[in-house]
Recover the amino acids of this structure.
């Protein structure tokens, strides 16, 4: 029930912003067991993922498969994945934050 409430709140935010519902990720920590559960959501459907990374990967790929925009709050992360992980030329070049993040991570890893 909590996941469906979260999905409904996200959908409302999308619609108030004039957007259609895009695939997105929900991470839930079970307070009783301390287990972290990861889900990716498409419309009002949600699917369990093995990890937060798998949920993010699947939501990212669902955006491409469904030909939808990236969720606004995840746009920077998705553009980074698009450009530097999957080597897809898209919109990342328009965003200095994506380029700056890549530069910082490159310097950090040297």
């Amino acid at each position: 029930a909590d996941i469906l409430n979260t999905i409904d709140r996200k959908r409302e935010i999308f619609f108030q912003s004039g957007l259609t519902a895009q695939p997105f990720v929900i991470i839930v920590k079970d307070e009783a067991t301390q287990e972290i559960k990861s889900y990716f959501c498409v419309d009002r459907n949600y699917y369990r993922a093995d990890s937060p990374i798998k949920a993010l990967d699947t939501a990212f790929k669902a955006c491409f498969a469904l030909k939808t925009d990236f969720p606004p709050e995840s746009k920077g992360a998705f553009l980074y994945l698009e450009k530097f992980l999957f080597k897809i030329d898209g919109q990342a070049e328009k965003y200095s934050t994506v380029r700056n993040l890549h530069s910082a991570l490159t310097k950090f890893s040297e």
Residues 2 and 43 are 16 Å apart (CA to CA). The longest helix spans residues 2-16.
